[in-house]
Specification:
Layout: H1 2-13, H2 24-34, H3 36-45, H4 51-76, H5 80-107, H6 109-112, H7 126-135, H8 146-171, H9 180-194, H10 198-201, H11 208-235
Helix pairs in contact: 2-8, 3-4, 4-5, 5-8, 5-11, 7-8, 9-11
Length: 242
């Protein structure tokens, strides 16, 4: 009896007090819930549902449910799901910032006077359109409201965050997989998006320079996400959350 009690105590102190919510089946569920962020856009493309309706009726409840599940795991579970969501969301956000920083010189090439070196590209023009779609406003507007701008950028970073969670759900544990798998994941996402109605929907010409720049940006996104997830996984052990 004393040995059994000590074993339970050791499990609790090591951050493994209860149910493991990070099994293959649970990770697939996490992946599905996190994917509702980008699905809200794809659903609109294919005319199955408006982005606004999907976001408020499915995507937001799914992400809130995922957050609640993570809090439950932190309280009574093994904390592996909680750890995966923390690591994945932080890595995804860091990668999203790196992704945008990489694209800044192309967006402001004219203002910086470097248009002979880097092609000027309107890589941020879709963000206020995201906001307009979520708010139920016309897609094309002469001037987008500040609210549409904020909502659009928030949606952009929501995708970065959820891509990080989806990546962690696929690999299970970032410090047991090579970080380059995140690059494969990010490039796969972008190649997949290029074959959807995304370019046509937003009036984006698939010129070679655009494709090269956007693939390079996603390579940066994937590399930063993979390396960030690796570093965070080593830093944030289960016992760190108690």
């Amino acid at each position: 009896m004393g040995n059994e009690f000590q074993s339970l105590l050791n499990q609790h102190e090591s951050g493994n007090p209860g149910t493991d919510f990070w099994s293959t089946e649970c990770r697939l569920t996490v992946f599905a819930l996190a994917s509702t962020s980008i699905l809200s856009l794809l659903i609109q493309f294919y005319g199955l549902c408006s982005m606004r309706a999907f976001t408020f009726s499915i995507s937001l409840p799914a992400l809130l449910g995922l957050m609640g599940w993570a809090l439950l795991d932190r309280a009574i579970g093994s904390q592996r799901l909680w750890r995966g969501l923390v690591v994945g969301s932080l890595a995804g956000l860091v990668a999203a910032f790196a992704y945008d920083i990489f694209r800044l010189p192309f967006v402001f090439a004219h203002g910086l006077g470097i248009e002979r070196v880097l092609p000027p590209l309107q890589l941020f023009k879709v963000f206020p359109r995201f906001g307009a779609m979520i708010l139920g406003q016309p897609l094309e507007q002469a001037v987008y409201s500040l609210l549409a701008q904020w909502v659009g950028w928030a949606y952009h970073f929501s995708n970065g965050l959820t891509f990080g969670i989806m990546y962690l759900a696929l690999v299970g544990d970032a410090d047991k997989r090579h970080w380059a798998w995140a690059v494969v994941f990010a490039l796969g996402l972008e190649l997949g998006m290029l074959f959807t109605p995304y370019p046509r929907f937003f009036g984006i010409a698939l010129a070679p320079r655009f494709v090269v720049v956007t693939l390079a940006a996603h390579l940066v996104f994937g590399a930063v996400m993979g390396l960030s997830a690796l570093g965070l996984s080593k830093l944030l052990t289960p016992s760190a959350y108690r």
